[in-house]
Write a structure and sequence with these properties.
Order of helices and strands of chain B: HHHHHHEHEEHEEHEE
Strand order of the largest sheet of chain B: 2-4-5-7-6
Distance between the termini of chain A: 39 Å
Strand order of the largest sheet of chain A: 2-1-3-4-5
Number of strands of chain B: 7
Radius of gyration of chain A: 21 Å
Oligomer: heterodimer
Number of helices of chain A: 7
Number of strands of chain A: 15
Strand content of chain B: 5-15%
Largest interface: A-B, 21 and 24 residues
Structural class of chain A: alpha/beta
Helix content of chain A: 25-40%
Shape of chain A: elongated
Distance between the termini of chain B: 56 Å
Radius of gyration of chain B: 35 Å
Order of helices and strands of chain A: EHEHEHEHEHHEEEEEHEEEEE
Largest sheet of chain A: 5 strands, parallel
Chain lengths: 286, 351
């Protein structure tokens, strides 16, 4: 396993078009000879797998890939990234896209590193310089042997916020001002069950359905989580995981285990729900 | 009257406040001209004629506007009502305008007309002629303006439809990805880069040239599909296999230009690109009597009709088929047992 104590920085390339992947690899070896590209993959799922295997310093992720988008892969990688004292920091993420006006505006707003295809040499050079500078700043080995330094966890929080904001922008771009739901209509047999929105304790994605849970019952509705989310009051209902929305007032306690995982316990139900790292920022003590 | 839009979505805007003001100004000028004309034949002074002319003209105009406000909201389509409204306005307006002028000139007690009945009839006929002529003038102008507005809306819609079509065919993501691949290819295999550039040139030219109505031989249609698929194959590498089967006797049959392109694009974009392993696209054609059948088959994730991203291209194919062949042509989808999507087009072979 490579770690940041290795003299050469490492990178993972995720790009589904073989010629472009090969070319990026060659350009990188020319412009940044010390960089060791440990793996090149062609889809989002492999990107997560290889990312966790190699724990590289830099990620070049294409946005549109089969299986999973580059952004989804990055968020899943962030979810499972090890945070004990021996593990390296979360990598520098560079998103690569051919054309997407909307995404580019969002990248700019989030100060996210990105490359536009065709990747132009000058632009790649500038990106490399920025990343090199950041890699230099961050690796100060041995200054806190017990756990990650505050600077390290701050950097990880910033990366999480960037990814979270980009993912939220991606889902809410065209439905910002939908009217808010007051009732959820769930089909039960031939009847339609009306559920007042304040009775909903949490909603969980399950394949093509959503499970809607009240204190005593469970209903299935055929809606996408992001579509439902857009129709909920964001102060009343919080997304806490990729597939979980919880009514904030129904959360009784928040726990963090020794590995840093956050989970919540509910007032009227006995389940314990896992909170994604992406959304854990909502649960800090005041 | 407000500038609302009617049920056809065209601006109503007939006789709006602004056009009423313009009419009013024109009316004052008209009345003045009539007064000057009448003075040439009458024993009264210009000032008196001016008073009569302005008041009578204004009364007629007011009377007409009032009738239109109540009974004739759409004068251009209700012109028969105008045939009644104008004489009523002229007679009513003339008499009230005249009475009003008298009252101003001679005070409330004066009751006798200064001119004889013959004169009144003459002026009435004059007013009728002027009233009819000006109404006709304003209505023709308004009709012309409305025609221009309608033509504007139509040409705007046509432009928009063409833009949407172009955007769906020249999908920017595809274009830039292809350019990226060409850039790489130039460095490692210049000959192949040239071939790809030729495919791209032909594809672009065909896309820009293809209009709703144009047709070309099926063999040309296949050649353009080949251009498109070669470009995509360059990008997807081993993840894409494709096959284009065209029986020789069908090569010259005319088909709408780039009709099949959206189907192949859907197969790639929604069928194969999302899968990690990729797959194949097959296009085949056969003849059955006077009908031509074309199949586009892929083994990707399968067509989801609810996916509205696919909607525009398919809607466009259906519209073209309907326009060109009525009910003799059609587009349908099957989800074959082996997975993927089978799109089927049938259209009549014209002699």
């Amino acid at each position: 396993m490579m770690t940041h104590t290795s003299p050469r920085p490492t990178a993972l390339i995720a790009e589904d078009e073989p010629l472009l992947a090969q070319s990026l690899r060659e350009e990188l070896s020319r412009l940044w000879p010390e960089l060791n590209v440990v793996a090149t993959v062609g889809d989002g799922l492999s990107a997560v797998r290889e990312g966790l295997r190699w724990l590289p310093d830099v990620l070049f992720f294409d946005i549109r890939m089969p299986g999973q988008t580059g952004l989804e892969a990055a968020s899943e990688l962030a979810e499972s990234w090890p945070t004990d004292r021996t593990s390296p920091e979360f990598p520098q993420l560079v998103l690569v896209t051919a054309y997407d006006n909307y995404a580019v505006a969002a990248f700019e707003a989030q100060a996210m590193d990105y490359l536009l295809k065709p990747v132009q040499t000058e632009r790649l050079k500038a990106t490399i310089q920025r990343i090199q500078k950041r890699l230099l700043l961050r690796s100060r080995p041995g200054n806190n042997p017990g756990q990650q330094s505050p600077a390290q966890s701050k950097a990880f929080d910033d990366a999480l916020a960037q990814i979270r904001n980009l993912m939220e922008l991606g889902t809410s771009s065209n439905q910002t001002s939908l009217p808010k739901l007051t009732m959820i209509q769930a089909g039960v047999g031939n009847a339609i069950q009306m559920i007042a929105i304040q009775d909903v304790i949490y909603v969980e994605a399950a394949d093509k359905y959503l499970r809607v849970l009240t204190a005593t019952r469970e209903y299935l509705i055929r809606t996408a989580l992001k579509d439902l989310l857009a129709q909920l009051d964001p102060d009343q209902f919080w997304q806490i995981h990729r597939g979980l929305i919880v009514q904030a007032a129904q959360i009784a306690t928040v726990e963090r285990d020794e590995s840093g995982r956050t989970s919540v316990r509910l007032r009227q139900r006995s389940e314990k729900l896992a909170v994604s790292r992406l959304y854990a920022h909502r649960f800090r003590a005041m | 009257m407000s500038a609302t839009t009617n049920h056809q979505g065209q601006p109503r805007a007939v006789f709006t406040a602004r056009s009423a003001l313009r009419q009013f100004m024109t009316l004052l000028v008209f009345n003045t001209l009539i007064a000057i004309g009448v003075s040439a034949f009458s024993e009264h002074s210009l000032l008196i004629n001016l008073l009569f002319s302005q008041l009578i003209g204004l009364c007629i105009w007011g009377c007409l506007q009032l009738q239109m406000l109540i009974f004739i909201p759409q004068p251009l389509t209700q012109w028969k009502r105008m045939l009644i409204a104008v004489p009523i306005a002229v007679v009513g307006g003339y008499l009230s305008g005249q009475a009003l002028s008298m009252r101003i000139l001679f005070g409330p007690d004066f009751n006798v007309a200064p001119t004889g009945a013959q004169n009144t009839l003459g002026y009435l006929l004059l007013s009728l002629a002027v009233g009819a002529a000006t109404t006709y003038y304003f209505m023709s102008r308004e009709r012309l303006a409305q025609e221009i507005r309608r033509a504007d809306v139509a040409s705007h819609q046509a432009t928009e439809a063409r833009l949407r079509l172009l955007e769906s065919q020249l999908e920017p993501h595809m274009l830039f990805n292809t350019l990226s691949n060409l850039r790489v290819l130039m460095g490692i295999d210049a000959v192949r880069a040239q071939t790809m550039l030729d495919h791209m040139t032909d594809y672009l030219r065909a896309t820009l040239r293809a209009s709703q109505a144009s047709t070309h031989p099926l063999a040309t249609e296949y050649a353009r599909l080949n251009d498109y698929l070669e470009l995509i194959a360059l990008r997807m590498g081993p993840r894409l296999q494709f096959e284009l089967n065209l029986p020789e006797e069908l090569a010259t049959i005319p088909v709408p230009a780039l009709l099949l392109q959206p189907l192949v694009e859907n197969s790639i974009r929604h069928g194969l690109e999302p899968t990690v392993a990729g797959g194949h696209v097959r296009v085949s054609a056969c003849k059955d009597g006077s009908q031509l059948h074309i199949n586009v088959h892929d083994n990707g994730v399968g067509f989801n009709p609810a996916d509205n991203e696919q909607g525009y291209g398919l809607q466009h194919i259906r519209e073209r088929l309907q326009t060109l062949y009525g009910n003799h042509a059609g587009l349908s989808f099957e989800l074959p047992a082996g997975g993927g999507t089978l799109a089927h087009i049938t259209l009549p072979i014209s002699a």
